[in-house]
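In response to reviewer comment 3 from the previous cycle, which asked for concrete evidence that the modeling workflow produces usable outputs, we include below a single protein chain processed end to end. The sequence was submitted unchanged, and the resulting structure tokens are shown without manual editing.
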Amino acid sequence: MKQITLLLFIFFVFNAAAADSLKIAVISDPHFLAEEIAKPGAALNAYEKSTGRDISDLHAVLDNIFDQIVEEDVDILLIPGDLTNHGSKQSHKAFAKKLQILKDKGIQTYVIPGNHDVNVPNSKSFVGELPNIIESVSPDEFASIYDAFGYGNAISRDDNSLSYLVAINDSTWLLNFDTNKYTEYTNNSISSGRILPQTMSWAIDVLKRAKQMNVRVIGMMHHGIVEHIQYQSSFFSDYLLDDWQQNAEVLANEGLKVVFTGHFHSTDAVELITVNGNRITDVETGSLSQYPFPYRIINLKDNELSINTRFVKSIPENPDLWDEYSKKQENYVRNSTSGKFKNMGIPIPQEIMNALTEVIVQVNLMHMTGDEQVTPEMANALSLMTTLLDIPESETTDFELDFPPGDKKLTILLK
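The workflow returned the following structure tokens.
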């Protein structure tokens, strides 16, 4: 803590004139794949077909958003993980070069790793006929590559993870959590996440010091810290922290009001209120590797975060980007859902299976864009489902499509 105090004193002296306002952008899960390891050929074609990702489209979307961020005169860019596709060293280095271009234009980026970024055992290149296993990065290499994007100007580092703290102006700290399990990887990366007990102790010390110094704190991590949909902890637990509710309550009670997350590839925001009446909001930003290609523009003034969400709907290289990738996602969910129903081995009449599948497809598409509303198509599917399964209508109306607050446009009070 003495290190934090000394570095903060120096920071405040040289930034005393900093305005109490910031313009922040957030992107997440770009899953960047460097051009040098993704060249036209059979291997890349097979990868793009299996994932629905056209690498040239994704590069153009990323460049488009970076151009928009520059035009918006953003101060800070936050990226909560999955910077690269399976953590290849070449992709990390190429991505860092793109971030350096932003930094040269006055935009400071802060990153944190996702589950696809560090120690990935099956990192691959797609050159020639077949993919090849290539080198990933160690935790130390990750911090070195992104030295200019958080780690080099950290005022405190957790000894047990890649978590770190930065002061982004004289009244605002950014608390970055490394929630990944890359020390346990064997053949594949692990989707689920956690906050180590030692890391939580470090974070609590940071939050207590912030409270003493009357400094507001913004959090960032890859995994969700609050459930974003009903039963997420039962059906999609890998996208939440282990012991998510306990972790959320501890951090909320220590004064953390907002955490920017990714991982679930959806555009959503949800809040948790503790027994003590403290509130924490998990603001999740969807992936730039698929529909709906979202990014956030946030104005921080005094103690109020005003969040607006934008989507890349077209690029010069692909004017039909939005519709094309929406259909890809719809087909993927429909096929995946139908396959899971069949694998269950339960004799479900085709009519019921189709109704259930359409409900799931519509919910998924709406959740990815945020602010879910019951559309006419959704109402018809629900009505058919309740009729076929003889479910009382009251039970389906109790189902919540979206938890408060709003997803695409919202305001969060930090104090």
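The longest strand covers residues 294-301. We consider this sufficient to address the reviewer's concern, and the full set will be provided in the supplementary archive.
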